[in-house]
Amino acid sequence: MEAVGRQDTAALLRERGLRVTAQRRVILEAFREDEGGHLTADEVHTRASEPLPELARATVYNTLAEFVRAGLLRPIEGRGATRYDANLDEGHHHFRCIRCDRLFDVHPVGVDALTVAEPGFRVERTQVLLEGVCSECDAVPA
Amino acid sequence: MEAVGRQDTAALLRERGLRVTAQRRVILEAFREDEGGHLTADEVHTRASEPLPELARATVYNTLAEFVRAGLLRPIEGRGATRYDANLDEGHHHFRCIRCDRLFDVHPVGVDALTVAEPGFRVERTQVLLEGVCSECDAVPA
DNA sequence: CTCCGTGCAAAGATTTTGCAGGAAC
DNA sequence: GTTCCTGCAAAATCTTTGCACGGAG
Predict the structure, then answer these.
(1) CA of A11 vs chain B CAs: smallest distance (Å)
(2) Among the four residues A138, B25, B35, B65, which has the most C-beta atoms within 10 Å?
(3) For A18-30, what is each residue's pLDDT tens digit?
(4) What is the SS3 assignment for B95?
(5) Does B100 contact strand C, using a CB cutoff of 7 Å?
(6) How many CB atoms neighbour CB A21 within 10 A?
(7) d(CA A51, CA A28)
(8) What does the DSSP 8-state code read for residue B74?
(9) How far apart are CA B20 and CA B53, in angstroms?
């Protein structure tokens, strides 16, 4: 929601016990600059390569996994490549357009009870994915 | 829920407008014989290869996609390989154990309101995935 | 200085595609 | 007989791994 300055990026990394490197900074900033903030590893690589052309794909994968462990990102698994969500708000869920494959944040009504414990299972995470056609694609005949 | 005989398998395929072939029959029967019915393409291939050793992997993928289009299976996307669900009951959702990676059917309380239309999006499908540790894995120290 | 992160390349896993032969209807 | 499915093999996609160098703390 709130835009965070570049200098804060380093502080955020340090806060989470992560070493500050140029790679981590540009990767984290790629999410801040993205409207919506739902990027695939490949998209992150493309964007972060602009300021840092030497950046290897493997580093992107390693770093994204690191960020997930540190609680900076949340992986959204679905069709094809995994997308990473920088919006850590527990109350939101996702809508994927089956036409354009984009991912949107949504706040559906009536999902709050989902945190209810399931007997026999220790629930640690909940992922709600709505699928359909977004208004933009719905306007197109095809 | 109810076990369906082999002879019904062919009828079911015909009903859905699908040609009846040995491959499709053994693939569909693999789901009936599986407790829980959440198989990956590879698991389907392994099981269906028993009665039909010539069965190619590509055929399994093609056939599963066909079955999804025909409404016989529902794809459950998540970490790693996609699992296919033979339980078409709209009211159930899934729990994945992050230790053993198995998928269980669950009926969490309070999810009914999820079918609520999301303004601006035409929702066609809803996928709720709970993640955590199953009771079986929870009993193991590691 | 020490440790951890990075880059490179290669392998691994999953899924898709093209085409010719063959079976279902 | 016509149409659609299957098998084979190869490629495309997405992700992980091993190892040596180099920069962060």
Answers:
(1) 31
(2) B25
(3) 999 999 999 999 9
(4) strand
(5) no
(6) 13
(7) 12
(8) E
(9) 18
Take residue B49 and report the two structure tokens written for it: 């290869």
Encode pLDDT of B39-66 as tens digits: 999 999 999 999 999 999 999 999 999 9
In the structure, how far is the CA atom of residue A4 from the C1' atom of nucleotide D17, in angstroms?
Answer: 34
Mean pLDDT of A105-122: 63
pTM: 0.84
Place of tokens 């300021």: A51
Integer Cα distance of B33 and A88 in angstroms: 41
- DSSP 3-state assignment of B44? helix
Secondary structure string (H, E, C) spanning chain A: CCCCCHHHHHHHHHHCCCCCCHHHHHHHHHHHHCCCCEEEHHHHHHHHHCCCCCCCHHHHHHHHHHHHHHCCCEEECCCCCCEEECCCCCCCEEEEECCCCCEEEECCCCCHHHHCCCCCEEEEEEEEEEEEEEHHHHHCCC
Q: Protein contacts on strand C: list nucleotides below 7 Å from a Cβ.
A: 4-10, 13-18, 23-25
Per-residue tokens: A78 = 């679905």
